[in-house]
Amino acid sequence: MSFKSWRSYSGFASKTSARPQEPLDNDSREFLASILDTCKSKVRKLSAGTIVWRAQTGRPNYVASPDFCIDERVPYTFKRMKPDAEHSSDGRANTKGIPCLYVAADAETAIHEIRPWPSLVVSLGKLKLVRDLKFIDFSESSGSEQFPYFFFNEPSADERIKAVWAAMDFAFSWPVAESDPESEYVPTQIISKFIKSKGYDGIIYKSSITKGRNYVLFNLNDAEIVQCDLFEVTKVKFDFEKLY
User: Fold this and answer.
1) Where is the RES domain (predicted)?
2) Spatial CB neighbours of 217, under 8 Å, sequence gap ≥ 6
3) pTM surpassing 0.85?
4) Which of 190, 170, 184, 156 is nearest to 31 (CA)?
5) Which residues, in sequence order, are CB contacts of 180 under 8 Å at separation 6+?
6) What's the rounded Cα separation, in Å, for the pair 229 and 75?
7) What is the pLDDT of residues 23-59, one digit of tens each?
């Protein structure tokens, strides 16, 4: 089964965002089935021992007394560098209270993903995969940083597949502001949950900020932290363009 239209993802996203609490309708279930039917070339395996990276803003402050705080130049503890159910919020691939582990393929991408600014102090964790993992890779769906597909008429089945996978990669990688409604996450959360239910260990998607790749591990214990260091951001470069 292939996708019905090159706009299948936008239709799925509109329905699920508007009615996040309702059961999926037939079209939405068929869309998910089409992901499974067209993902064979998107399966990627990472071996145990592969290194990945995770960054978090800040470092711990140690309070010696109510009136005295010791600011030590140390990174967060290994435990603090992983999310927990109590404090986890909605993310691209997870719902609140059910955390996933968001990591990057390289240290630079991990730091970029926290939207740094000059003088920001960052705890950077180096993690190692503890077993062989199988991912669905959305990141190779297009070579362009801009959404590349638009058709006036329905294209061939192959072109429809390329367009829908590129749209999903765009949805996973595009940054969501804190002011945006939580429903913005719903379509990619449903896709992630579906992929997890089919026995996959995570997903891969492009960074919208740099050229790197991000990994989502559904199981927090599939990677262990082996090192954590403290960094300070010294320079940030912004590109911008006039809209009107």
Assistant:
1) 78-228
2) 100, 101, 103, 133, 201, 202, 223
3) yes
4) 190
5) none
6) 6
7) 899 999 999 999 999 999 999 999 999 999 999 988 8
